[in-house]
């Protein structure tokens, strides 16, 4: 347990690129807070001792300087300090959002009181997550019941996991080792037992580990089967190629190939990015964001599909979407 | 110099005997339970709050005992969840929110502005009965098996998954909210309508200003809490789909509504504490409060900005990053008025004649603990760091520093300061100083380790935990023993002082406020002579001079020479 070693540590292990950013801001804030605390302490203790009752120190009116100017001075100083801190913290966060590269995508499903993960090749884990060192990771998370929160202290990251919605978490493990995974949002009786272990391995070890897992079919392959068995292909065309009326399908439905990641104009004039959340919503609440030019005919699949099935369908649509659509 | 002499006053109210205080003016149980005297209602609140403080405190003791070891051995996981929910519900709504406004505030507000009573004395009593009704409802929920949602009632857990008395508890909180609103309206009306002649807005003592700000927040924010909790009741009891995502609801909607009240609620708890400290510090430093006008605007700024920062509780909830950044910005900005207050208290000491009786020690302890609590809030306001420390013990430590290290320390300080006015007896100063110092260190030993373990990753609301956190939990639990002693000790010696304490004069601390211009304890109608105000608050020395070298400057009373 290299990540948990040490006798009474004062600082958690830092095992991700994000941890460096967070720790830098924490150190700055610690320094500044320490300075302000020391200043207040010196003022209060210094004045309290110097101006204790009956002490010989000079009293009388306040000097010119310590009138309203000093008040305006420290108001401006604290405001400036606050704004600087905000600017730094905010730009660090924005910078992190901007550097979005290709990442290893892992689907995480939370439920009372366990974590389930599925790797791109279909390998599944419960209350454990194996990751290669040095590769960006993107978790797509959803909950089957109440709100949970995915928290790995060594990575300095946390993200609530909600029912009925996909939340994302990106990070970049930089150190190998075993680290705690906690549920950080109170979720019921065994909240304190909703623990897991995140194991970061060298990429070679990770590849061997993954190869040794009993492979599932892969989310997208399973999703393709669902796409056919649920009848999606009937309107959207086999393979999600989309269809025009009269070309083998009875209803005109949007083309799904090449859709993922594109901006979709909607019937009400808005434009949305076709990401996981949009695809998911369109399966469960098709009437909400209707693509421009199509009739809102699609029935809702809410209640018919489990969380896992929706995940598989979305994974399939993504895979179809990233390949150039046929006939384009 | 009001121009009304004492002789005139006696002639106006000849029937009132000297020495007939509000405590002895009427006797019998009914004279208390049906009283409309704001001072007696304040004592009714004090009695009820003491009971709730013991209930919430007992839960805290059990929590700290359970966390002494990593395993969940003293109570079950289910039992632990009920304990921290009980602790939160009782301490937030049945102790901290009403702690200063409904006890000290109720007692002092009319006295400090020179009024005979609050604007609506019957509403005041009614508000106490609402409070008691809500309290009984909550106790019923607890006795019937407790509640396991946490004091935050997060959906969809509270509406669809919790197997406990969520409905009763939610209704209790809704009801106590009505009590809060009634008190708030009453205090707003009192400050607007019943100020003594000459008591202009900028002559008000800062405790009055801070209670005014608190009352504004109570009246504007509490209805949102009631709405949110009634929606929880509607979904849980009647299946109305609001928060349940399976029926198209949005669980985050609840968090927005809840924090729209519950963040301002933090200021409901801390603003009155600011007021108390602003009264104590000038009195024992023998100086005018530094930057009175800035202090007033800081209170109003905090009351206003407090409404605009609720989203910083939701940085990891899945809300948009841009929303988070806006809330982060505003949360940094709200640090400014808080910093103004700390610096102004510090500078009030400058060139003073400072003495260190117990109330002053509590006030100085407050400044230290509140400063640390506020500074650790900056860490929480910055989005990237918040993602690491939110929902950990770091947050637990932070808000206990503000609400317990801050508000409760100030409550104890204010209690010692105004005890002679309330009871006519002086608290024993030696014991009181000892308790004040013990409270500061007991508090720090209890809650400082929580910052460290929170940053190390220890999540909140865990009945059992990985063993590497144990050392910090043991430290916290050990500190809690000191803290418990520091909270119990004053209850002992204050009770003792009721019988054996030295009798207090009208103005034992040589303070300037109008409340010291009447007898201790005050008569039923507060003032034998209605005061007329010709001066600002805190006239501890002439405007352009300071206190002299040798001894305490004879101060001038706000109420003129009556």
From TrEMBL, chain A:
Subcellular location: Membrane
Start and end residues of each Cytochrome oxidase subunit II copper A binding domain: 101-212
Domain of life: Bacteria
Pfam family, one: Cytochrom_C
Alphabetic keyword roster: Copper, Electron transport, Heme, Iron, Membrane, Metal-binding, Respiratory chain, Translocase, Transmembrane, Transmembrane helix, Transport
EC number(s) per entry: 7.1.1.9
Keyword field contains Heme: yes
Domain (Cytochrome c) ranges: 218-321
Major enzyme class: translocase
Catalytic activity: 4 Fe(II)-[cytochrome c] + O2 + 8 H(+)(in) = 4 Fe(III)-[cytochrome c] + 2 H2O + 4 H(+)(out)
Membrane topology annotation: Multi-pass membrane protein
GO CC list: membrane
GO terms (BP aspect): ATP synthesis coupled electron transport
GO molecular function, one term: cytochrome-c oxidase activity
Bilayer-crossing regions: 26-49, 70-90
Family of this protein: Belongs to the cytochrome c oxidase subunit 2 family.
Function, in words: Subunits I and II form the functional core of the enzyme complex. Electrons originating in cytochrome c are transferred via heme a and Cu(A) to the binuclear center formed by heme a3 and Cu(B).
Protein name according to UniProt: cytochrome-c oxidase
Source organism of this protein record: Roseomonas acroporae
Encoding gene, per UniProt annotation: coxB
From TrEMBL, chain B:
Annotated GO biological process: aerobic respiration; electron transport coupled proton transport; respiratory electron transport chain
Domain (Cytochrome oxidase subunit I profile) ranges: 32-534
TM segment ranges: 42-63, 83-104, 125-147, 167-194, 206-233, 253-277, 289-309, 321-340, 361-381, 393-419, 431-452, 472-496
Region (Disordered) location: 543-562
Source taxon at top rank: Bacteria
Signal peptide annotation: none
Pfam families in alphabetical order: COX1
Keywords, alphabetical: Electron transport, Heme, Iron, Membrane, Metal-binding, Respiratory chain, Transmembrane, Transmembrane helix, Transport
The keyword Electron transport is annotated on this UniProt entry: yes
Entry membrane topology: Multi-pass membrane protein
InterPro entries xrefs: Cyt_c_oxase-like_su1_dom (IPR023616), Cyt_c_oxase-like_su1_sf (IPR036927), Cyt_C_Oxase_1 (IPR000883), Cyt_c_Oxase_su1_BS (IPR023615)
Subcellular compartments: Membrane
One example GO MF annotation: heme binding
Gene Ontology cellular-component terms listed: membrane
Family: Belongs to the heme-copper respiratory oxidase family.
Protein name from the UniProt record: Cbb3-type cytochrome c oxidase subunit I
